[in-house]
From TrEMBL:
Protein name from the UniProt record: Glycosyltransferase WbuB
Record domain Glycosyl transferase family: where: 276-455
InterPro entries in UniProt: Glyco_trans_1, Glyco_trans_4-like_N
PANTHER family attached to this UniProt entry: GLYCOSYLTRANSFERASE, SPORE COAT PROTEIN SA
Originating organism: Alienimonas chondri
Domain Glycosyltransferase subfamily 4-like N-terminal: 83-251
Classification lineage: Bacteria, Pseudomonadati, Planctomycetota, Planctomycetia, Planctomycetales
Region (Disordered): 482-517
Amino acid sequence: MSVDRCVPPFPGTAVTAKSPGMWNARRLRYEFAVRPAVGAARPRVLFLNRSYRPDAEATGQLLTELTEDLAADSPDGPNGHPAGGWRVTVICGRPNANPEGLPAKTGMTLWRGVTVRRIGHTRLAGEAKRSLALRAIDYSTFLLSALWRGVLTPRVDVVVAETDPFPLAIVGRLLAWRHRARFVIHAQDVHPELGVALGVLRNGPLVRIVRGAMHVAARSADGVVTLSTDMRKTFLKIGVPADRIAVLPNWADADAVRPVRHGNRFRLEHGLGEPGAPGSKFVVMHSGNMGRTQRLEDVLAAAARLADDPRIVFLLVGGGAAEAGLKAGAKRLGLTNLRFLPYQPKSTLGESLSAADLHLICTDARVIPYLMPSKLYGVLAVGAPALCVAPAGSEMAATVTGAGAGDADETFDDRQSDRCGWTVEPGDVTALAETIAAAATLPRGELRDLGDAGRRLAEERFSRAAVTPRFSAALRAVTEGESPAKAARFVPPPAAPETLPLCDPSEAETLPARQAA
């Protein structure tokens, strides 16, 4: 390998063929002086995450879609960004929830161009994940297996560590050194800060040691991908430079998840009736993980206050660590207007989400700096109004109210959009119940207009086709020593002209076709 085929470890650093490596104390990283250029047609990227297809958990489904797009043969994508053209490997674990019953054996498989290396590890905590001690054992065995498998994996150009479980950032940092590769953290949440904020973890010596290691990994990363401007502020406080923090939301596959407003089989199977028909129910739904971050006990309290309204029924669809406690609470309150349903197959997700007249996206105010619920984007994609339980100044509340999600940094878009729902403050059960009751009295046309606004927003900003090419652009920027924040910036699509330009008389016969297009 000749020196002219090498690139500097980061901009402004000169290298020579004789220098074995160097420390950069400011960025707390060890850089190998000679690393192969990543300008090849198909650069190699390794993803680390416990959850992957066919796991029903959101992080696994999103990672599956992202890697499929990155591994696609076509390098062209929407929004001016390249989409595919990567050689993708995923190291993942065994699924916690597999509603479709698809094979998920350990070993190597090929899925739509992605090399999937599923590793063995313990699953003592089970799908409910109630025991913190058992979860710690499961996470530890997965991390050790992931590290060993990553060491044995053929050399890659970029290592991307997801956050399931969160110490994967430390494993990813070690593997990036091992492969002499660029390192990126894709932060679906920020731990251990999130666990400490919720009181799940005690801020003792062990947690402080892990936090210190996580912060070193973040500051040493070539790029950090966060889900919101709220999370970006957290990484800025940690010490990650602004130009290395790309804000990329999660998404919904707007082509696969579409509104099903009439003849919805999910509504018919569960006796909910056709929307707007006599005797039909006004369905208030929470779909997805039932964990400690959502404050779903407030939903139970709101359901109790609305128990005398025969129109309204609450559906909690999914599962998680808080499910057993919520079921016990509903039984204690004697709630006959609230039902629990399991995770729905991905193939019918459009119908199950479309069955709701109003979707709840609940968050605990303490967690806003550390995560962004991805279920919001599926709600927008099916054209259903959203009721977000979130602080007024958060990005999630701003998205639903149409206020935009601006930031002082010019790399963020602050354009306003149409309102697609409502927000209430976390913990305000009275406002939650009153808002649900008021929504149930609105004409169907007003609810449909709110849902249509959400659908437009999903297609433009939060669809799979709009986001995954931006992720690819951020990765390519990292390989080239450029800013992932600028490369992943959202570029609004050009507005369609109000009138067609004048054409030559000889082209007059093509005008109808042009108008149709």
